[in-house]
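Example (one chain per record):
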Amino acid sequence: MKVQLKVNNLTNPFTVEELQKIIPFRNVEEPGIIGQNRAEKAISLGLGIKSYGFNIFVSGVSGTGKLTAVKSYLNEIAVKEPVPSDWCYINNFDDPYQPKKLSMPAGHAIELKKDIKAIIQEARQSLVKAFESEEYANRKRLIQEKYEAQESTIINAINQRAEKESLIIKQTPLEIFTIPIIEGVPMTDEQFLSLPKEKQEKIHEKQNKLAEDVKEALRQTRKLAKAATEELNKLEKEVAAYAISNLIEDTEEKYTQIPEVIEYLKNLKNDILGNLTEFLLADKSTENILGGKNQDFLKRYEVNVLVDNSRQQGAPIIIESNPTYNNLIGRVEKESVMGTLLTDFTMIRKGALHSANGGYLVIRAEELFKNYFSWEALKRTIKNKEVLIEEATDKLGYLTTKSIKPEPIPLKVKVILVGDPLYYHLLYSYDIDFRELFKVKADFDSSMNRTDENIGNYIAFINSVCELEKLGRIQDGAMAKIIEFGSRLADDQGKLSTRLALIADIIREADYYASQEKSSQITPIHVLRAINEKNYRGNLVQEKINELIERKQIFIDTTGSKTGQINGLSVIDLGDISFGRPIRITCSVNLGKGGIIAIEREAELSGPLHTKGVLILAGYLSEKYFQDKPISLSARVVFEQSYSEVEGDSASSTELYAILSNLANAPIKQGIAVTGSVNQKGEVQAIGGVNEKIEGYFELCKKIGLNEEQGVIIPSANKQNLMLKEEVLEAVANKKFNIWAIDTIDDGIELLTGLRAGSINEEGTIAYKVNTTLINYSEKMKEFSEEEEDSAGDNIWVSNVVG
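Predicted structure:
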């Protein structure tokens, strides 16, 4: 059934009267999540279940408020949860290449850092005073004197022994030797050689025996020196331990509830006592022989606070906008000293996972997959329940450098990925780990029902934007226009778009125009101007195409009638704007067996959906016209002046009209453009972009000149999707432009040709004329077949005669 729509039926505009019925909903409070009940339940479930794998993937098209909704939910629940622990790294005195982690209650890590710093400063001062004290000097002197006396006794004894044997002992840097004496004077070589051999040998025997005694004496003095050093070191440690014990014990009392800190303080004390010289001489200004600064020895006693939750209220919420590998799991920094890269545990830096530990981490999926290793690193940390800081190159396995390896930190975090539905489907299909780790999907819808409650929430949202951004007051008429624009975005009279970011942009732009006019209120005119200006900024391509049509460089007729030629409607989507583009579709038919030939398909410019639509046309013609006759038709259909791939089946009814027009020799009114798909039963089905298609053709007709006969044929099923511009509504109301809604191909062909569709048995109808043409084709095809058979028989007979 064909219906010419009246202006009141074209759209369902929102009126001021309707608005005033919903006044109780009007407020400036934060409206929360609007029209996303399904997503709200999913988010609530995902955040409520703390078990492994119940992380959340929030999917939905851009502008639906996914991230805003997640923030709103997290802010509400996170503040009620306990503040997680602080985390820091401390030196591993046994193995500096493997720093130790340390967990502390929130706020205690910074205190420990300050306490350790104070201990080191006060310890150095106390040690200096202790070692400069008179008591220490006296005890040290007594020890030294004791061992010096023992050493003197040994040396005196060996000297007396030598003197009895008429020998003296001489020592050089290289050796110790004995020299014989005569009357207390060392004997010269000449004197020694002048002695009889027996006496020389006797002196040699004395020297050798004394040399053994000297060696034994030296061994005893070395033992005494070692014992003296050990006793002095013991004295130093006793004095040092006494000097710093009070400092350590006072700090231990403060952290009695944290055994790890007590153990660390003991290790720190032992390390100081074991490195007293370096500890006392440590100075940041000392330089090595290469001229560069030495690493500060005292850095080994610092506390590297990785995560400080002292100011945190509730569980942390981290939104990582740049989820690189290092930004996620942390890194170990290095500094260059004389061309050498140096590092230590104080250069360990946290990542987003550390900051979010005990709370929530939100990441945009598209940003995550832009960075190498980030996705694998995130999965690994979730599965292992710990954050291991390692170089990205270590993952490759063939490029490694010597560095520190911090202990991994236990992880307890809820990860929320936010992204387009495409990412979810790809991950679910191709990544097995994804299904295990992200078990909750929160799907944000792009539209919601246009109920009073949702309209009230819309109003609350609009008012909240104006209040928060100090925009002008919105008049009721302007509010109605914005709500109507929301239905326009949803392409449905009974729906409202949930892409609230676009709604907010229109409000801001309308306020700008109001401010230009020095108006404190946003009026309907300002809203309409914002909508029109937004379209104007993006429709340059549309204007260029219409200009080419007007100049007859692209052929589109909007007047007269022609056989086998019709205006179809397509939609061009440029991202920021979509618009309808008229396109001429022509058909030529002749006797043959090719059936319906789509030239785009033959030229490999046809997508699978368009190809399907063409095959459906063949099914329609076969059922209606070829039940009692063989197919004897070749029909070639083409989109004229189209040089890119054709996709979709929304032009299938248009192509069918062109074929029927040609077969029936019935001219089609060129002022009418057509859209709609068709099934094999001849029913016209709904299509997308109906508003853009109607408005696109209207713009062209307006540019060329409206003649009251122009219009668009659409499927009846698309009536609920009509949300047209006021200019189009006005033209329809004034009968300068027409819109027809149809249910079947018969309805459409009657509008296009002015002839009844009828049946194959009714003379003068389209069906009768089409059937007549096909019967003629069939009879001619039969005649050709008989002639070919006769010709073939003659050839056979001649061949036999010759044989």
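Caption: The chain has four domains: 13-32+446-538, 36-84+313-444, 128-277, 554-779.
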